[in-house]
Amino acid sequence: MPEPRLEDLTRRLADCPPEFLLELPDEEAGLVNPGAVLSDALAAFGGPPLAAGEAKAVAQRRGARLAMTAAWLLGHDSFAGRAGLAPKAKAFLLSLAPLAAAVEPGLFVTDADRREELARLALRALGLRAAGESAAQAEDRLAALDSLETRRTAELARAAQERAREVREAMKRKAAEEAAAKASRE
User: How far is the C-alpha of 77 from the C-alpha of 12, rounded, in Å?
Assistant: First the structure.
């Protein structure tokens, strides 16, 4: 079976139904059932539906929106008929909460880089890669797009800058104290 074309996957994400991205008020929360959407996606892979506890965990607003978008992606024809993907698909769908916390889920539909990132994450999770790419190319491109790594790197850089600022201030205080001590000795 041929490998999925990245362009086809990102196009599918761009065509994601808007209902998957709605921020529903509590009284309307039953209009779109994230557990049912994910269970349907898993059934297409021949897997069992989500357990009640799993469905409840996915129902968190931001995580649910990204998981439903990913489920829409997994419905692409290029994944159909591939044996043994149900457990991998389930693990992928249940692993998206940290990414949803870091990046507005709607961007995985509207932003080209985020669409590519989600498509590549899905491919990696399923043990596949985009047509025409080597494993190294696929990993390099995903690393360049990785929102969680970018966020972690930015946080490390901010922490390093803060530490450098603290060191500079400590050095200034020490220099001022030494100057004051020298002046009092003279």
Answer: 10
Under 8 Å between Cβ of 73 and 118: yes
pTM greater than the 0.90 cutoff: no
How many residues appear in the chain?
186
Residue 160 neighbours by CB under 8 Å, 6+ apart: none
Mean pLDDT (the chain) is 86
- Kindly report the backbone phi and psi dihedral angles of residue 104, in degrees, each rounded to the nearest multiple of 5, phi listed first: -55, 120
Is 75 exposed, middle or buried, given 0-12, 13-18 or 19+ CB atoms closer than 10 A? Answer: middle
Nearest Cα residue to 93 out of 36, 134, 131: 36
Write out the E strands in the chain.
none
Per-domain boundaries in the chain: 6-145
Separation between Cα atoms, residue 68 and residue 73, nearest integer Å: 9
Q: Give the rounded distance of the alpha carbon of 76 from its chain centre.
A: 19
Provide the pLDDT for residue 27: 44
In which residue are the tokens 């439903």 written?
Answer: 68
